[in-house]
Amino acid sequence: MSEPRRDRLDQPVEPGRVRLPRFDPEAFGRWSESIARYMGTAKFIVYMTVVIGAWFAWNTMAPKSLRFDPYTFTFLTLVLSLQASYAAPLILLAQNRQTDRDRLAMEEDRRRAAMQKADTEYLAREIAALRIALGEVATRDFVRTELARLADELDEAAARRAKLDRRDQDA
Fold first, then answer.
1. How far is the C-alpha of 66 from the C-alpha of 59, rounded, in Å?
2. Which residue ranges run through the membrane (predicted)?
């Protein structure tokens, strides 16, 4: 049996089901962060001080018939309490989002550090292998020395052969 379509007005709504409006949690989070950021500025504190000062001034110096919040400022207390009751969760939500971003950034930093460490270890092994290979490779000075020694040996051998050849000719 199929469920009745919800967009039809001729079908009854299931009893006991409350349909809450849908909202984007990411958009709400961005909005709460912007409010929390604004509430953490000097501009907000200055505006808040001006509003509270104007409230005090109006409700103490205006004619009694125009005052809307007499001396104990009960309505101001209610407004500030309401503001605080909304500000605290918004600030906590913004902090939670910042903590999540920090955690993701830390994980990314950890991943990059591990990759850099692996790259550094690989390069160190390659440099060590090159040093070992260079130790086995003849340097220019070594080749020159060996060639000079071989040339001397050849000269000596040629001189001995020439001496032997002269001796053989004399004999």
1. 8
2. 44-61, 73-94
